[in-house]
Amino acid sequence: MASKTRLIVGIDFGTTYSGFSWAVNSGLKTVNLVTDWETSNAYSATDEKVRTWISYTGTKPTSFGNTAVGKPFRWFKVLLQPDHYSQGVRDVRDANVGLREFSKSLEEVISDYLGWLWLRGKEDIARKQGHDFESRFDLRVILTVPAAWKPIAKDRTLRAAKRAGLPDDIHLVTEPEAAALATLSSKSDEAELQKGDVFVVCDAGGGTVDLISYEVLNPSPLQIKECGVGEGDLCGSAFLDLGFEHIIKTKIGEEKYNSTKEKDRKKMLLFFEHCIKFGFDGNINKVHSVELRGAGSGDDPEEDDDQIEVKGHIRQNQIKQVKAEGRMVKAILLVGGFGRSNYLHSRLDKTYRRQGINVLQARNPWSAVCRGATLWGLEREIVVSRNARYNYGYAVNVEFDATKHDVSDRYYDASEGIDRAKDQMEWLLRWGEEIQAGRVLEWEDYNTIKENELQSRRGTTKSFTRNFYYSDLPQAPTRKCHDVIPLLSLNFQIETDKILKTSKSRKGNDGEYCRDVYFKMEIELRNADLDFTVLYDGEKVAYIKANYKEKF
Length: 552
Description:
Elements: E1 5-12, E2 17-24, E3 32-33, E4 50-51, E5 54-57, E6 60-64, H1 90-101, H2 106-129, H3 133-136, E7 137-145, H4 151-163, E8 170-174, H5 175-189, E9 198-204, E10 209-219, E11 222-226, E12 231-233, H6 238-252, H7 254-259, H8 262-277, H9 312-324, E13 331-335, H10 342-352, E14 358-361, H11 368-378, E15 383-387, E16 391-399, E17 410-413, E18 418-429, E19 434-436, E20 440-450, H12 451-455, E21 461-471, E22 485-495, H13 496-502, E23 505-507, E24 513-525, E25 529-536, E26 539-547
Parallel strand pairs: 1-7, 7-8, 9-13, 11-15, 13-14
Antiparallel strand pairs: 1-2, 2-3, 2-4, 5-6, 9-10, 10-11, 10-12, 15-19, 16-18, 16-21, 17-18, 20-24, 21-22, 23-24, 24-25, 25-26
Helix pairs in contact: 2-4, 5-11, 6-8
Protein name: Actin-like ATPase domain-containing protein
Pfam families: HSP70
Keywords: ATP-binding, Nucleotide-binding
């Protein structure tokens, strides 16, 4: 029986807006973007994305997206990794309060929203592919996440997606990588890329701004590699919306503001968001008027020059990482909803033009992440190498050195007659190091076992365990501590008769006979996972597959 054609779905689950795209992995492989989101206003009639909003009546979700009524849940996505974001943001606080008020867990809210987004997206697919598409295609979903998210936030996202009824075949990709694929693929089609070109992709969204750098290895067919570790922070355009609302409250008074109708406040905020914010070019003398029925004119506020900063250290980190490898950045590509801002473009252009770096606005920047997610599912081989966001390794007990080791790790090894330092880290793959598919990490390891223990177990097997760990610190810890997190345990057995036949007996410092049992350990780096293998006397005795914590 012939295998089914695969249908790829890309979901951009955003802080303030979300998107849905899809493509069939055959023929032209055209990426289809859902744009006909239901709306209650004129500004979103054919939007590329839909609000990440959800409203409840009791514990039941009743409205979603642009048409969410009352006081909808907003900004709940950032609660997946609250330590990374400011709890001072009003909408984040409101989301926390809402969870308690409606007795909902965070995963339930995200699951409810993703479930609605999935059903709404499937309606679009059915209109173009027929209502039986789920029986004719194998479905694969690519879900986007911020570059700076830790493994626990990514795992919670996956659990919520599966709970929402999405297919089991789900993969995560970082938002800036998805945006890079959409943007650089477009430039490749237009013959604008050359081998060796380096680009910084700035994904400026509503809640977060993420950056990542790529070098073009081959312009056609497009192949790129990461030049640095992607990073991000919470400094998106939604903070401008919050600042604007704060100014209006200051102008007319909070009590009067709250007395106006909810629909009128929404209309005013939508007008600011769609008609003023992205068209602002830095001219502070230009006057913009907004209407809020029932508010009156109010008193003139004092001049306010509050600004939202797209964190300079994040931009500079990307450029420094590229320069450290002896390369020069050709251009900064602006994508994401905030990437449409003329003012953001002009400020960045003014800063980097002096360095010979062009700042370019991508075509259709708001949907770049969403379209790129589907492209990632279609053509993952475009990114041929990435940089590790984590350190991967194992712990060993080594001879104690007072100049290097913590005294609390010191213990006496009676068998060898020496002091040792326990649980010192050996890192096989370090933060920022290039991950090349097919590369094999090899090393030798051993256990010392008492002779009488082996002799008493003839005809049986001896069990061994190897524990592996990861850490997200750029400067990897030298010893096992709270920043070193378990990745997996590899358990295996070897016949005791084989150990006795292939190893040598020796007398330990304590007078007891023992044997050193040596293993060859291998980890093969693959595109999506790590393959762990243990060999003893040339034979494979253990094998296990593990995912990168990056969730490639």
